[in-house]
């Protein structure tokens, strides 16, 4: 049998994606470095399906229709490069290698150029939705060699998540590393969303002293409104899940969070692009701080702080409503920052990203899927050159409406010593972004004082640089570089 597509890597994501592809009418040939996994898969879940196994990479290549399409779902990094090197001598001009892992986008830029130099085509695609998404329909974010898209489009569209009936959560994102970049930003926003939800839970637990059942009811209600999303939905269910002794299992989980690096990559990229990604970065740092468990326990016994009051100074129901507003406004800031980063990188790498299409990619299948994304799609449809989501009328009005509650929640947490870095980071960014004149004038004076770094003047045209001899000893010589 000549299969429609080959897949390398039969971990959970790989197996589920194969089952998804086959269920949509395509034949698949699979290979795994550990041969027993292929044997077990074919005799188990894949039994009776239009799925065959390969004993070697050559066997895999020989059992595929041309142009051959081979998708790798293996650990990011050196394993991807190793497979590329093994595959290249076995493939023919126009064959396609696809990396479906969580790869850092600069690696995909490099690999696309390298594979194309060998007469082959390359795709780096984000696949979001976890195990369930891979099986039932993920969000797919492909980029790479443009000529490859037409060959994989029927398969990718068929297996992707669908919204509004038959709208596919799969679009060609752009050349070289664009697909993996968009997936990276998706994961960064996911970090922000998760941290905000965790802080909302923590606030309810610490200030109104709500138990897990009460918090479950709040998330249940929130999932019926503007906050409706996959992450709110699963948080609702987590809060209701009981251990064997009837107590909430969430309270028995150690408070040390793991991470695989995509959030960090997003933050580092924002620094490279000069885009303030404060909320997502705070979410990454919150995970780092959580990892210092033993150190935090010791610190908790010696560092002073306010005692959390047992009663709020205003109605609990009103406070929960304010918390909902704070969560919604902070979520808007998180997405505004993420899309601003994509806008900057699109110019840097000449990707011409379509932000409205990207919002649609995330409407279904992926971890950050929510009804809220339809508003983002509409914002960029109305203004494709929108500088920041906060400037769109819908989001501008939403944050304005949330102002009072947002500030009350942050103030209450700060006064009571409850750490909410994502909520406060979002509010601080919002206040900074809406401020026409920030104190950076003093900062520029300081830089010029100690390093002759020069500055611009408000009473002179932009781009004209000035230096002041602040001490009377420095002379008129100024530094030759000026970086904002």
Helices, strands, pairings?
Blueprint: E1 5-8, H1 12-23, E2 28-31, H2 35-43, E3 51-53, H3 57-62, E4 69-72, H4 78-87, E5 96-99, H5 105-117, E6 121-128, H6 130-136, E7 139-144, H7 149-159, E8 162-163, E9 167-168, E10 174-175, H8 178-206, H9 212-222, H10 230-240, H11 262-273, H12 278-290, H13 293-300, H14 316-349, H15 355-361, H16 372-382, H17 393-415, H18 421-433, H19 440-451
Parallel strand pairs: 1-2, 1-4, 2-3, 4-5, 5-6, 7-10
Antiparallel strand pairs: 6-7, 8-9
Helix pairs in contact: 1-6, 5-8, 8-11, 8-12, 8-14, 9-10, 11-12, 12-18, 14-17, 14-18, 15-16
Question: Which features would summarize this protein structure in a list?
Answer:
single chain; about 475 residues; alpha/beta; eight-stranded mixed β-sheet; 19 helices
How far apart, in Å, are the first and last alpha carbons?
Answer: 59 Å
| Estimated radius of gyration | 26 Å
Instruction: Please state how the strands of the largest beta sheet are arranged side by side.
Output: 3-2-1-4-5-6-7-10
In oligomeric terms, what are we looking at? single chain
Shape, principal axes of CA atoms: globular
Residues in helix, %: 40-55%
Tally of DSSP β-strands: 10
**Largest sheet at a glance?**
8 strands, mixed
Structural class category: alpha/beta
- Count of DSSP H/I helices: 19
Question: What is the strand content?
Answer: 5-15%
In short:
The protein is built from 19 helices and ten strands. The protein is of the alpha/beta class and 484 residues long.
């Amino acid at each position: 049998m000549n299969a429609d597509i080959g897949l390398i890597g039969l971990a959970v994501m790989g197996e589920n994606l194969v089952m998804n592809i086959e269920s949509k009418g395509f034949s698949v040939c699979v290979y795994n470095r550990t041969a027993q996994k292929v044997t077990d898969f074919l005799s188990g879940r894949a039994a009776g399906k239009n799925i065959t196994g390969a004993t070697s990479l050559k066997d895999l290549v020989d059992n595929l229709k041309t142009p051959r399409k081979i998708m790798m779902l293996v650990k990011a990094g050196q394993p991807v490069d190793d497979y590329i090197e093994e595959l290249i001598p076995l493939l023919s001009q126009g064959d396609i290698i696809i990396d479906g892992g969580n790869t850092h986008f600069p690696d995909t830029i490099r690999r696309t150029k390298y594979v194309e130099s060998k007469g082959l085509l390359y795709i780096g695609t984000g696949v979001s939705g976890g195990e369930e998404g891979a099986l039932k329909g993920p969000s797919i974010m492909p980029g790479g060699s443009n000529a490859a898209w037409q060959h994989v489009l029927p398969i990718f569209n068929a297996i992707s998540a669908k919204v509004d009936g038959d709208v596919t959560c799969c679009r060609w994102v752009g050349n070289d590393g664009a697909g993996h970049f968009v997936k990276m930003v998706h994961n960064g926003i996911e970090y922000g969303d998760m941290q905000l939800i965790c802080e909302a839970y923590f606030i309810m637990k610490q200030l109104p002293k709500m138990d897990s059942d009460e918090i479950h009811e709040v998330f249940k209600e929130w999932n019926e409104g503007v906050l409706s999303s996959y992450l709110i939905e699963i948080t609702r269910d987590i809060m209701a899940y009981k251990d064997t002794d009837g107590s909430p299992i969430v309270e028995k989980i150690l408070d040390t969070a793991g991470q695989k690096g995509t959030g960090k990559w997003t933050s580092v990229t924002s620094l490279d692009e000069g885009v303030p990604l404060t909320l997502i970065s705070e979410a990454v740092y919150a995970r780092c701080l959580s990892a210092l468990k033993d150190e935090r326990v010791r610190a908790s016994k010696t560092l002073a702080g306010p005692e959390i009051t047992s009663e709020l100074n205003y109605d609990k129901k009103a406070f929960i409503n304010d918390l909902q507003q704070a969560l919604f406004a902070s979520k808007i800031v998180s997405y505004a920052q993420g899309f601003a980063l994509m806008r900057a990188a699109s110019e840097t790498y000449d990707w011409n990203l379509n932000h409205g299409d990207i919002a649609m990619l995330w409407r279904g299948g992926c971890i950050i899927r929510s009804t809220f994304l339809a508003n983002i799609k509409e914002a960029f449809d109305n203004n494709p050159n929108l500088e920041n989501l906060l400037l769109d009328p819908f989001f501008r009005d939403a944050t304005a409406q949330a102002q009072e509650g947002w500030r009350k929640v942050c103030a209450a947490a700060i006064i009571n010593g409850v750490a909410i870095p994502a909520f406060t980071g979002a509010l601080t960014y919002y206040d900074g972004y809406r401020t026409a004149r920030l104190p950076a004038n003093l900062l520029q004076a300081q830089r010029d004082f100690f390093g002759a770094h020069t500055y611009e003047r408000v009473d002179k045209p932009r781009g004209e640089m000035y230096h002041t001899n602040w001490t009377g000893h420095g002379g008129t010589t100024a530094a030759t570089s000026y970086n904002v």
